[in-house]
Amino acid sequence: MLNRNIKEKGIESLLFAAGATAVIALFLLCIFLFREGALLFENYPVSSFLTDTKWLPTATKPQYGLLPLLLGSFVVTVGSILFSVPLGIASAIYISEIADPKIANVLKPVTEILAGIPSVVYGFFGLVILVPIVQKTLSLPTGQTALTGSIMLGIMALPTIISISEDAISSVPRSIKEGSLALGSTEWQTIYKVTVPAALSGISAAVMLGIGRAIGETMTVMMVSGNSAIIPGFPSGLFESVRTMTATIALEMGEVPQGSDHFHALFAIGSVLFITTFIINIIANYIKRRYRFSL
């Protein structure tokens, strides 16, 4: 009995140490990121960083305007969600409620495998296949636009949205569905009036996690969106080249002098990106907990 208690205490201690290490590592990362980013504002006003409309770090008088990068990320992310959410939810409904079990047992694992494909592979696909199609179809000067980036990010977000949404729909108690059918509802009426509303919290969490995947992606959007640090117009912004926050950090960090204002500006962008994704993940986790307890 004594040995058993010692083993349990040892396992508890190891698990606590593992959890504490992860928390401490995240805390130190936050300190490092925010400290380096804050150093920019010793020489450059916070208001200018947030409101300047130009990102010109190598100009005679450098400008570190976050606005074109933030709006570029916003346009690409919104476009990807508009593309992926309807398709992802429809696919989840089909796999969970309509497809033959044999077909569903193939589609679900294949969809989850797609989430493990490296982003650079998606980027190559978009650059070689999708960019020429967009350019020719829409008669644009270049196919490397926010639209192309939105489609590719939407494709990358699909596995997350489909997998989590399918789990949420499948978790709806069968008695609820059978009750709806017993009252005379058709199968389709049961799906969109009973099943989907009952799984709405889980579907919402899937959408939030898909947004987090899209806004944090680097390689794919850097390869297909054109990387022009300009403020996209409305509604023509989808057909213009844009640059996202993640692409800016990836493109410039390797060549920037360490300790310069440009160096610290990239960390400031990283801080904004970290806060944005952190908030999205908190919202998604809250929705998932609410969904879990509601069942």
From TrEMBL:
The chain crosses the membrane at residues 12-34, 66-93, 113-134, 146-169, 190-215, 263-287. Keywords: Cell membrane, Membrane, Phosphate transport, Transmembrane, Transmembrane helix, Transport. One of its GO terms (molecular function) is phosphate transmembrane transporter activity. It is found in: Cell membrane. GO terms for cellular component: plasma membrane. The keyword Transmembrane helix applies. It is a multi-pass membrane protein. Residues 70-284 form the ABC transmembrane type-1 domain. It comes from the Archaea. Belongs to the binding-protein-dependent transport system permease family. CysTW subfamily. Part of the binding-protein-dependent transport system for phosphate; probably responsible for the translocation of the substrate across the membrane. This is Phosphate transport system permease protein. It comes from Methanolobus vulcani.
